[in-house]
User: Fold these one by one.
Assistant:
Number 1:
Amino acid sequence: MQSFLGSASYYRNHIKNISHITSSLNKLCSKDVIFQITKERRDAYERIKHELTNAPVHILPEFEIPFKLYIDAACIQGLGEALLQREIVYGEPREKLICYISREFKNSEARCEATQTKFLFLVWALEKLHY
């Protein structure tokens, strides 16, 4: 399981909300945990496989063009964010994905109000993305 999660983690910027998806599988790697496959864990495993084989095409960032950062802090277990840029394709403006980032809530963060959570994760995303 650790090997699979390590391989999936290598592509974490290509999988939306990967920390949320892998949370049940990460628990299997803890000490003193009985390795038991549940429906939730099997579904998470299958979803990661699906996401790895069907990941959207990412673009390289162009630093002259403004970035857009979408924050989803409404999830109960964690947050997900997407970094995009507007690109002109065949004369039409389209938002193109650069990367996804995500992580699980820490205990203290799970009790924050929605507005506080969004600002907290905005700061985290800016630090993570180095912008």
Number 2:
Amino acid sequence: MGTSVRWGDVFGDQTVASAMIDRIVHHADVLSLKGVSYRLKSHQPAADPA
């Protein structure tokens, strides 16, 4: 998986993490979406704490 998270570090064991991810995505269609997020379209930036 092309993410910045190392799943082995998250779950404490790379083998266990690989097995869990394999079972989750076994019959799944994995989509990689590119482009601007619609959720961020109406997002208001945080006020600058000065």
